[in-house]
Design goal:
The complex is a heterotrimer of chains A (219), B (491) and C (313).
Chain A lengths: L1 H25 L3 H25 L4 H28 L11 H18 L1 H6 L8 H17 L3 H23 L4 H29 L13
Chain B lengths: L1 H23 L5 H26 L4 E4 L5 E4 H19 L12 H23 L3 H18 L6 H36 L8 H7 L5 H19 L7 H8 L2 H29 L4 H23 L3 H20 L2 H33 L10 H4 L1 H14 L6 H15 L3 H26 L15 H4 L3 H12 L3 H15 L1
Antiparallel strand pairs in B: 1-2
Helix pairs in contact in B: 1-2, 1-4, 2-3, 2-20, 3-4, 3-10, 3-13, 4-5, 4-10, 5-6, 5-10, 6-8, 6-9, 7-10, 8-10, 8-11, 9-12, 10-12, 10-13, 11-12, 11-17, 12-13, 13-15, 13-16, 13-19, 13-20, 15-17, 16-19
Chain C lengths: L1 H31 L9 H11 L10 H20 L15 H20 L4 H32 L4 H10 L7 H17 L18 H4 L5 H26 L10 H28 L8 H21 L2
The chains are: A mainly alpha (219), B mainly alpha (491), C mainly alpha (313).
């Protein structure tokens, strides 16, 4: 019964995280992207706590705290500041239109299910049922980076991709060793800060956040 | 052993100290750069001593609690490559002379991040834990990306944005692959503390599940392949190499490229022990051929000589991938090719800097009569191009020959034939571009004089001599080191 | 025998309840907007009035125009025989299941669209094309969202699905259920022509969808179509509440159980009606080209529901 509840809750949490990721494909305003990322990170932090409790691994409580601090507080605050400085542009014409993107995301989830079949078969953890959802989130994050035109959307897409990988690690292995996880957090923070710097540069030199403008470098 | 501990410190500290000095000294002063350059020689010496230890039969040296640093033969080779290019770069960095192209704050930024970049690369090759290796490689992406737009122009911002976005996404996928293999390990034997240490992974590999490791390797290859610039993940390369300062370009195209290949090779060794059949080999062959194809044809179309070097990098990445997929003989050839390529590319980027300063344009059509205007630079440039297209007496000829011999030995005659044809296409394009640049009438306003004095030209003869030496003979020390590495690969 | 009588009684009850449900939602909307609002049973008087009025048909209309109201009414009424309103499982279950329900609903939509095109007016054509755009994405989603539940029950028989959920109450919070509920909720808004997809009380050409198709109808035809629309609302509400929160539905055919089930159903419908009224007061109508995006979201939700149910079996 306990493992059943654990499996249900992890599937529920992963579905919510995946839905937040799909919200990036549905909504147009940057504000909603930041909100979606914040909620997704909140759900993941809660899941870290839950996995720590059910899996009896106190390291995960620490991980939950770090995750919460980094991805629910620090990064969204920077994103919001960034958004205020470079102007709230809307993703009005992505490379793939919204309805098609949503349907493709459904197909990506099916693809993720196919790809993770061997993983689910190999694992014996109760959380293994939700592994395809984590892989689906990774694919959705990748899709967002590839098909959206605004630089800020691409940054949020990258962050969602990282969240997906964290979720995959959590579901598949109850989290990777703490030291490495800290290193990963540091890296993500650095990458995010660097991207933030570049978004300012883009805004400064191009006066637009549309990456379609970044087309001067050709053969 | 205390000696090896000192060695590790000697390896890593110079670049960290260099970064520290650059941070502390405001505004930037030239002596910081010179100090940096001389101290990096210590790092190079440390790397050579690691190489000597590996050749003399010591399996690996370890350092630190939990053995978080480990240097075996493969690490030693990479260390030598990285520190050699790093030393060369630091001696030829902007800011060491009466520099007028960059202002002091730009120079300070450059020196901080280039040292951190070098430190991260060195950490990646001595990390015992593949997770730590990943963290270091991701750090290299961030540090190098911050140097590309040293001068803020639309083009450099565009290039750095593409580089950091594509690089970070690629690296994230490599991390997913790392997580998947850890997942497999955990599914097999529970959560062990040192599960991600490479020797442990290698030892457990035969017991891991091949379907999972297959998926893991695909992610890893795509991820680290993005860093190495293997097609189809190479799109950031021409932009990044074209827009970054030459010293960074030299480091990225030779050292960082080598580190990415190192990561792929480390994982290939693990996966090969687990997955039956030639799964990893076939993937590498496919991506290698694709890279050679795209690289060769892009050279035909390219109009900017710095981007031309980038596409040549893609082509050589393809060749090395091809080698890695051709069994033990191929891996030997690939590693030899890596050494030669490192020497050639680093030299080329410094030469290109001089050319751009003289002619004021990155376009090939604007560069004519180089032999008359700057005979030494032009001569070295010509030598470099001839080396890159695989002509004797340069080392790349020897390694390519070894590669093709390995290919035929492994029964891939058609594949080798296609690769040769593609190399011929690249050959022709390079020679024609070179001709256009070397000969012809000098454009207006370009005076005939070398851009750099002997101080800057002399160091470039070092990689050139390495190329010539490796083209004429294979020194026993290098052969011994490569043999040690082959033992690691095929154990 | 008793079962068949029960089924027919259930259909008659649905027929009787449908208009007052529509009126109830309308009444609450008015109240929430600060008006007194027409009493909920006004709809009955409207229907009686319409039945007495003269029918005016365009000269260009064909037999489809006259046939459609009867078809729409009877197909929607037939659906009420197949869905579990007060009891599950039911004897007519042998005749039809989820797929038949979806197809019957679609049959009604299809003919209504044809009838909109038939008289050759601009409004009708416009409404028909808009309706078809919505139906194209909404119809598969209905099937998919309930299919997620069907996977758990091992059958697409609606009665069996309800029985399964009653037997395993913990499954009601599983991701498959919740996602399926969300998907079906959005589709319900689309299929019954409520905000944010279509405004049921508008007559502006820019915003009409359902109204536009039925604009030409008068008299008893209009009465039948209005009643059928009300029945459709009842059907979707019942599907939502009984599939995903089936407590109260009678599993045995005793009078007590049936009485409790009827009261439970009315209570649940009233609650859902209130929610809809609240929703309609708060949100505004979506621009037409954004509607496929909303429906694509519901489709993806339904797809996720199916995959979650599949994964957690």
């Amino acid at each position: 019964m306990n493992t059943d509840l654990f499996a249900q809750l992890s599937a529920l949490g992963s579905s919510l995280a995946l839905l937040a990721g799909i919200a990036l494909l549905w909504r147009r305003s940057l504000d909603s992207y930041v909100q979606a990322f914040k909620w997704q990170s909140l759900v993941l932090a809660a899941m870290f706590l839950m996995v720590g409790y059910f899996g009896r691994d106190p390291e995960l409580y620490a991980m939950a705290v770090f995750f919460f601090l980094l991805k629910v507080i620090v990064i969204p605050r920077y994103l919001r500041r960034l958004q205020q400085r470079v102007g709230a542009e809307r993703e009005s014409q992505p490379y793939v239109n919204i309805a098609t993107s949503l349907i493709i995301s459904g197909l990506l989830v099916l693809l993720a299910y196919a790809v993770t079949r061997p993983l689910v078969a190999v694992s014996r953890l109760p959380t293994r049922g939700a592994l395809p959802l984590a892989m689906g989130l990774i694919f959705v994050g990748l899709f967002v980076v590839v098909t959206r035109r605004k630089a800020l959307t691409q940054v949020v897409g990258f962050l969602v991709l990282e969240n997906g990988i964290a979720l995959l690690a959590m579901l598949g292995t109850y989290g990777i060793p703490l030291i490495i996880e800290l290193g990963v957090f540091l890296d993500v923070l650095m990458a995010f800060l660097a991207m933030q710097v570049f978004v300012y540069h883009i805004h400064g030199t191009f006066e637009s956040m549309d990456v379609e403008q970044l087309n001067r470098l050709k053969h | 052993m205390a000696f090896s501990d000192i060695n590790f410190l000697l390896l890593l500290l110079p670049s960290l100290l260099g970064a520290l000095f650059a941070i502390l000294v405001r505004p930037f002063r030239a002596w910081v750069g010179w100090l940096n350059a001389f101290v990096s020689l210590l790092g190079f010496a440390a790397a050579l001593s690691f190489g000597a230890r590996a050749v003399s039969g010591i399996e690996a040296s370890v350092f630190g609690p939990g053995e978080f640093l480990r240097a075996d033969g493969l690490s030693a080779l990479l260390m030598v490559l990285v520190t050699a290019v790093a030393t060369l770069t630091l001696f030829l960095s902007p800011g060491l002379g009466p520099e007028t192209r960059y202002d002091p704050s730009q120079l300070r930024r450059y020196h901080i991040f280039i040292n951190l970049f070098i430190a991260a690369m060195l950490l990646a090759v001595v990390a015992n834990n593949v997770g730590l290796m990943w963290v270091a490689i991701e750090a290299t992406t961030v540090f190098s990306a911050l140097i590309i737009p040293l001068r803020l122009t639309k083009e450099s911002v565009e290039a750095s944005w593409k580089y950091i976005l594509i690089g970070s996404v690629g690296i994230a996928l490599a991390f997913a692959g790392t997580v998947l293999s850890y997942f497999d390990f955990v599914a097999l034997s529970g959560r062990v503390e040192n599960a991600l240490n490479w020797p442990v992974l290698r030892a457990t590999a035969p017991l891991l599940h091949s379907e999972v490791m297959r998926i893991s390797f695909v992610f890893i290859l795509v991820g680290y392949g993005t860093k190495a610039g293997i097609a189809p993940m190479h799109t950031w390369k021409p932009d990044a190499y074209g827009e970054s300062p030459s010293s960074l370009g030299a480091l990225m195209s030779s050292a960082l490229f080598a580190v990415a290949m190192y990561a792929i090779l480390r994982w290939k060794i693990v996966v090969d022990a687990c997955v039956k059949g030639h799964f990893a080999d076939n993937l590498l062959l496919a991506l290698g051929m694709l890279s050679i194809l795209i690289g060769s044809f892009s050279v035909v179309l390219v109009r900017n000589y710095k981007r031309m070097l980038a596409y040549s990098s893609v082509e050589h990445a393809g060749l090395i991938c091809l080698g890695l997929g051709l069994g033990p003989l191929g891996v030997f050839a690939a590693l030899l090719h890596l050494i030669n390529h490192t020497a050639a590319k680093s030299m080329m980027f410094f030469l290109v800097r001089g050319i751009e300063l003289k002619y004021g344009s990155p376009l090939i059509k604007d560069v004519r009569g180089m032999l008359r205007v700057m005979p030494w630079t032009g001569g070295l440039f010509a030598a470099g191009i001839l080396a890159l297209i695989g002509l004797p007496p340069f080392g790349l000829f020897v390694s390519e020959f070894a590669l093709f011999r390995a290919g035929f030995a492994m029964n891939h005659p058609w594949l080798m034939g296609v690769a040769l044809a593609l190399l011929a296409v690249a050959f022709v394009s390079f020679i024609s571009q070179l001709n256009r640049m070397l000969y012809g009438s000098v454009p207006e306003g370009v005076n005939s004089a070398e851009v750099d004095g002997w101080g800057r030209m002399m160091p470039l003869f070092v990689p050139l001599s390495v190329l010539v030496v490796l083209g004429l003979t294979l020194p026993t020390s290098i052969v011994a080191l490569l043999n040690r590495i082959m033992e690691i690969v095929s154990k | 025998m008793k079962g068949y009588l029960l089924e027919i009684g259930q259909a008659l009850m649905a027929l009787a309840l449908a208009p007052v449900l529509v009126g109830f939602v309308r009444w609450w909307k008015a109240r929430l907007q600060g008006r007194r609002g027409a009493p909920p049973w006004l709809v009955y008087y409207d229907l009686r009035k319409l039945f007495g009025k003269e029918v005016v048909i365009s000269k260009n209309a064909s037999w489809i125009f006259r046939f459609t109201p009867y078809l729409v009414f009877s197909s929607t009424l037939a659906v009420t025989l197949l869905i579990p309103l007060v009891a599950a499982p039911l004897p007519f279950d042998a005749l039809g299941d989820l797929l038949l329900v979806v197809y019957l609903l679609l049959l009604g939509t299809f003919f209504l669209a044809l009838a909109g095109l038939d008289p050759g007016t601009a409004f009708g054509g416009m409404g028909a094309s808009r309706e078809m755009t919505i139906a194209a994405i909404a119809e598969p989603t209905i099937a998919l969202s309930i299919f997620g539940l069907a996977l758990g029950a091992g059958s697409t028989n609606l009665g069996r699905i309800v029985a399964q959920t009653l037997a395993h109450p913990a499954a009601a919070i599983s991701p498959g259920h919740l996602l399926g509920f969300a998907a079906l909720f959005i589709v319900m808004l689309a299929e019954t022509g409520r905000l944010p997809v279509d405004n049921p009380s508008t007559h502006l050409e820019l915003t009409m969808i359902h109204e536009a198709m039925t604009l030409e109808y008068s008299g008893r035809y209009l009465a039948l179509i209005e009643w059928a629309a009300a029945l459709r609302l009842l059907i979707f509400f019942s599907l939502l509440v009984n599939m995903f929160a089936p407590w109260g539905v009678a599993t045995t055919l005793t009078p007590v159980a049936l009485g409790v089930a009827a009261i439970a159903l009315i209570a649940k419908l009233a609650a859902l009606g209130l929610v809809i009224a609240l929703l309609e007061t708060r949100i505004s109508k979506l621009r037409l080209f954004r509607v496929p995006e909303l429906l694509a979201v519901s489709f993806v939700l339904a797809l996720l529901a199916v995959t979650s149910s599949f994964l957690l079996r």
